[in-house]
Amino acid sequence: VVSTINTKQEYCPIDGCIKEDSFMEKLQPKKMKNCSQDFKKTADLLTVGLEHSTSTHGTVLNPSTVIEETETVEEIDEALKVAGKNFEQLSIAVKVLEHIYNQTKEETVSFIEVLEKQFDQLFTSLDS
Asked: Fewer beta carbons under 10 A from the terminal one: N or C of the chain?
């Protein structure tokens, strides 16, 4: 009796089956796109007229500071979205790895049982 371990496992989450090969391709980390120009345009629109206006303390708001703060907030928001997606992918990967580990463990136990039976039969036949 020969026991084989299937290395091309499938994991079936609630929403359907994901094959291991395509799953690993989907696990590539998401990268932030460079949106600095879009942020600058948005900040420019927000700061129109601020150069000539004054705050309650009589200081002039610096448009470049507003632009930098807007860019920073937008980049942080984008980074948080990317981190959330990456966390979801890592959670799925953990479930897949747990499934593969458990299945491999079960197959190993089964293989050992078959191997022990074959050795017992071999020793019994040699003794007789």
From this structure: C
Number of domains composing the chain = 1
- Does this model's pTM top 0.70? My answer is no
Q: Is the dihedral of CA 101, 19, 11, 107 positive or negative?
A: negative
Q: How far is CA 121 from CA 1, 18, 34, 114, 125, in A?
A: 12, 41, 68, 11, 6
Asked if residue 14 belongs to a domain, the reply is: no
User: Given the structure tokens 């629109």, which residue do they identify?
Assistant: 45
Quick check: is 104 in a domain?
A: yes
Q: Is residue 20 a part of any domain in this protein?
A: no
pLDDT tens string, the chain, 128 residues long: the values are 444 444 444 444 444 444 445 555 555 555 555 555 555 555 555 555 554 444 455 566 676 776 777 888 889 999 999 999 999 999 999 999 999 999 999 999 999 999 999 999 999 999 87
| Tokens representing residue 82 in the block | 């990317």
Q: Is 51 helix (H, G, I), strand (E, B) or coil?
A: coil
Q: Tell me if 68 is assigned to some domain.
A: yes
- The Cα–Cα gap between 61 and 53 comes to 8
